[in-house]
Amino acid sequence: MSAGADRTPLILAAQSGDRAAIEQLLAVCQADARRYAHKHCHASDVDDAVQESLLVISRKVTGLKAAAAFSSWLFTVIKRECLKLTQALLKHEPIDADAAAQRLVGQTDAALRIDLAKALESLPAHYLEVVLLRDFEELTIAEMAERLAEQPGAIKSRLHRARELVREYLTVQNP
């Protein structure tokens, strides 16, 4: 929370389960969350970390014991989300494009369609959404950003990750 601003009444209302207060609290703390995420995340992960952190806050604020602990809790949640994103990024090994192509070249079109459908089904909803908007509805990054009310950079990053997950699924499933 911003220094000097007493948000205790808003936090208390959010703790009691007041949906409007929770939404207002999330709006108020978003700028601080973004600043903190910039310090702890890769630039491409900031939007995802903030989004995931605010989702956690919205679901768990009713369990917060003391309103005075909100700011430190918010920063702890953001730091944890940044760490999760960094670990996920480091966990994936680069895919050898030549080896992947060789694995897929022997498959029939029908088998490839089935595998692609399974790969898309395996994606988390926020990744599937950007793939469908880009590759099926053929929207531009700017159009996607406008529709999803997000920054174009966040959309590009999510689309890149989604495609990497699909590629990984297809190459791992087809050894």
Question: What key phrases describe this protein's structure?
Answer:
175 residues, mainly alpha, Rna Polymerase Sigma Factor, Chain: A, Arc Repressor Mutant, subunit A, 9 helices, 0% strand
In a nutshell, what does this entry contain?
The chain is 75% helix and 0% strand.
Report on the structure:
This protein has 175 residues and is mainly alpha-helical. It folds into 2 domains: 8-91, Rna Polymerase Sigma Factor, Chain: A (Orthogonal Bundle); 97-173, Winged helix-like DNA-binding domain superfamily/Winged helix DNA-binding domain (Arc Repressor Mutant, subunit A), CATH 1.10.10. The chain has 9 helices and no strands. The chain has helices spanning 8-15, 19-40, 46-60, 70-91, 97-105, 109-122, 125-136, 141-148, 152-173. The longest helix has 22 residues, at 19-40.
Number of domains: 2
- Number of strand elements: 0
Overall structural class, as computed from helix and strand content, comes to mainly alpha
Strand content: under 5%
Give the mean pLDDT.
83
CATH superfamily of the largest domain: RNA polymerase sigma factor, region 2, helix turn helix motif
CATH class of the largest domain: Mainly Alpha
* DSSP helical segment count: 9
CATH overall fold name of the largest domain? Rna Polymerase Sigma Factor, Chain: A
Low-confidence stretches: none
Spatial shape = elongated
Most strands sheet: none
CATH architectural category of the largest domain: Orthogonal Bundle
Classify the oligomer: single chain
End-to-end CA span: 50 Å
What does the radius of gyration come to?
A: 20 Å
Taken in chain order, the helices and strands follow as: HHHHHHHHH
Amount of helix: over 70%
